[in-house]
Amino acid sequence: MALFVDSADADEVKRAMELGVIYGVTTNPILIARSGKEARQVIAELSEICPGPIFHQVAAGSTEEMLAEAKTFSARLPQRLVIKVPCTLEGLRLVSQIGEETPCAVTAIFTLAQTYLACQAGARYVIPYVNRLTRAGGDGPGLVKTMREIISESEAEILAASLKSPQDVVSALFSGAHHVTAPLKVIEEMAKDQLTAEALAEFAAAQDEPS
Ligand code: E4P
Q1: What is the pLDDT of residue 209?
Q2: What is the domain range of residue 129?
Q3: Mean pLDDT in consecutive groups of 10 residues from the start of the chain, 211 residues
């Protein structure tokens, strides 16, 4: 039940790591672009900050280009790098070629059919986009639940992503996700509750009372 922070921002990942609850970091091309830095620089920085797995998503379209990109990145961080591959025919082909020696995550999964193919290709992780599916009119947590059943014979684990609130995180875990990844602001929200705030206010008021 590992918790990953979904970010390519070094300062944010540093703050996340300081919380002491984060196992690894997931990135994607949008997060990398937002950082304003080259992917290689971002992955190098994140690996300095986080001792756990770092997920890098290959951005190229063809299997050959993705393979070249994966090799370049794996050479720099061989033990901890997880190659994240979009669920396309080209991506699945890449996973089948390198999945035995390099852990791969098949990402942007929205169906059971995609899940099955990712497992057959040799994915170590399958990544459903939970909130996006719900926003599109589907059932994100329901997908996670049925994915858990379909992958029971494989070694793949579910890393639930696209989680936009503490409730999304909890629903994904409750539905059977092995791991979750969320933005730092969602992780910070998870520590908060109105009743906790009220209890703290009562403790503070009690301290101010004359004994
Ligand atoms: C996960 O690895 C992805 O980076 C992320 O969660 C994608 O989801 P979003 O684009 O809906 O936030």
Answers
A1: 81
A2: 3-208
A3: 98 98 98 96 96 95 94 87 97 97 97 98 98 98 97 95 98 98 98 97 90 69
The rounded distance, in Å, linking the Cα atoms of 146 and 115 is 10
Q: Domain tally for the chain?
A: 1
- Lining ligand 1 with CB less than 6 A are 6, 26, 28, 107, 127, 129, 132, 161-162, 181
Q: Which of 14, 84, 145, 185 is catalytic?
A: 84
Which residue CA neighbors atom 6 of ligand 1 most closely? 162
* Cα 48 to averaged position of ligand 1 atoms, centre (Å): 22
pLDDT score of 202: 97
For this structure, is 145 an active site residue? no
From residue 145, alpha-carbon distances to 42, 47, 125, 133, 186 in Å are: 33, 32, 15, 14, 22
Contact 110, 133 (CB under 8 A): yes
> Nearest residue CA, atom 11 of ligand 1?
162
Q: Tokens standing for 94?
A: 């890449």
* Angle, CA 185 vertex, CA 193 and CA 167 arms, to 5°: 50
What is the whole-number distance in angstroms between the Cα of residue 129 and the centre of ligand 1? 7
Name 150's Cβ contacts closer than 8 Å, sequence gap at least 6.
112, 115, 116, 119
Model pTM? Answer: 0.95
Strand runs labelled E in 36-134 = 54-57, 81-86, 104-109, 125-128
